Amino acid sequence: MGNTITELKENNYVPEIVPDSDLEWFTTNGAPRKIGWGDTPAVLVVDMTLAFTEERKEVGNPCVDANATLLEKARDVGVPVFYVTPSKAGTYPDDYHGTTKTSSGESTRSAQEQAEWDEKIDSIAPELEPEDGEVVLPKPRASSFFDMHTANLLHYYDIDTLIVTGMTTSGCVRGTVVDAQSSNFRTIVPPECVGDRSIISHELSLFDMSMKYADVTPLDEVLEKLDEYAKTEQPVPADD
Hints:
13% strand, 7 strands, globular, alpha/beta, 7-stranded parallel beta sheet
């Protein structure tokens, strides 16, 4: 039996822009279930590079700060942190984020502008710099799982819960969350730790993920949950 609209709003991420007429469907067809946490969480930081964090600083700066808070807690309690960044321009044909071209195939950037962009797309925000031993994976497309071995790597470390952060909410974060859920990870998204160029895209993507693929959980609650893992023995990869 479905919940009421009020209960749906209390238990899920529902922005004001979503009309009650849309929510009515979920109350009559079964409210979204909470996925919950497993035993071995990890953090996956998606595309928190200068190209994105500096693109719209009123969005990027708070997102960087929230991620810094999350990473500090994760490291303090021994929860592993993984990063993905965009592949460099030219790694794949028709690179979707490394170059900007006209319909005739000509670059809209000068050589210097392209070089500056390449540096930003590859540079993780300094506040979030990976520590020694933390894995940084280049990804060719939006999802952090497409044409990669991310799922195998995380399963190797016996990870069952993935806290996904980064930019942008409607693009690489959403693509990653969908594929994380498809790869049988319990998926958590702290809304303060993701950001987008478009506020409406950000809000509706979080709503969509909350309804289908992930638990969109406030950062404060995520930090409290991580504290519960402080004395939990962390997974160790098996010997070769």
